[in-house]
Amino acid sequence: xxxxxxxxxxxxxxxxxxxxxxxxxxxxxxxxxxxxxxxxxxxxxxxxxxxxxxxxxxxxxxxxxxxxxxxxxxxxxxxxxxxxxxxx
Length: 88
Known about the structure:
single chain; mainly alpha; 5 helices; globular
């Protein structure tokens, strides 16, 4: 979250990703049993508080990313599992 509120030069700021969402998505894929939709909602509320916007404005995006990351995690785990099973 600190990288999201740090002052950046204008040309760089337009190309900068949402560091909070990237970190959240990484941890959601790495630890899906600990980081979930509820964690995404709380992360969004904390981000709203940090940048001073209306509460709930950014809370929906991490929730949707959590669902996307969970689907990605399942597809990666099952494809890896199938690769291990089919190797003779």
